[in-house]
Design goal:
Layout (H helix, E strand, L loop, with lengths): L2 H4 L6 E10 L16 E13 L2 E13 L9 E13 L2 E11 L10 E11 L1 E2 L12 E14 L11 E13 L2 E12 L9 E7 L3
């Protein structure tokens, strides 16, 4: 169907995914169990092509279905996402916009939110002059910004807040598959509730 369009571009790719799964909870709540009576349908469509010496991809996805534990009430969760990425050599940027609606716009909504995500990185490969005894495959500093705005018709939790978050991070790969990552998150709350939740996180991944 799209072959004529795709042939106009070099190294272009059209990707689509469709998944039907058991209902997915909007939030993790203790006591939720899967009764197999609700279903969630998820789909994604993206298109990528060579652009200005790099690779550009844009896509969108949607998820819609019943929430676990309340299938009989008709409460639905809908997620809509639009995303893109551009990578050229060692650098890249990713961005995403997402909107979620727990009831499709009715008066019984408990939590709706809208947010954006932007991330930029630059990967430094191992320099040729580095001594062999120093374990380094690559090192990648990156910066991430994300924000979320909640709309809740009931005061469900004092921890549901609007927030702007800035993250500075470093990913250090000693050898393929061995990854050390450290990041610091600056969380700026938009409303009057004050919860100091700036975070420093570290992780290590090693294949077995």
């Amino acid at each position: 169907l799209f072959q004529g369009l795709l042939n106009q571009f070099q190294n272009s790719i059209l990707t689509y995914n469709v998944i039907l799964a058991n209902g997915d909870p909007f939030l993790n709540r203790s006591g939720d169990t899967d009764t197999n009576s609700g279903k969630t349908i998820m789909g994604r469509l993206s298109y990528g092509l060579d652009f200005l010496g790099g690779f550009l991809e844009a896509g969108g996805s949607i998820s819609h279905g019943a929430r676990i534990g309340v299938e009989s009430s008709g409460l639905k969760s809908t997620f809509v996402t639009v995303d893109g990425r551009y990578e050229r050599g060692p650098m890249g940027i990713r961005l995403e916009w997402q909107k979620a609606d727990e009831d499709g716009g009715g008066d019984t909504s408990q939590v709706d939110f809208e947010g954006i995500f932007v991330e930029a990185f630059y990967e430094f490969s191992r320099p040729y002059w580095l001594p062999e005894f120093i374990p380094l495959h690559s090192i990648t500093p990156y910066y991430r910004y994300d924000t979320r705005d909640f709309v809740a018709t009931s005061d469900m939790s004092q921890f549901i807040i609007d927030i702007d978050r800035h993250t500075v991070a470093l990913r250090y790969i000693t050898s393929p598959g061995n990854i050390v990552k450290a990041e610091y998150q600056f969380n700026e709350e938009k409303k009057s509730r004050t919860i100091d939740n700036d975070l420093f996180l570290m992780s290590y991944v090693r294949p077995f």
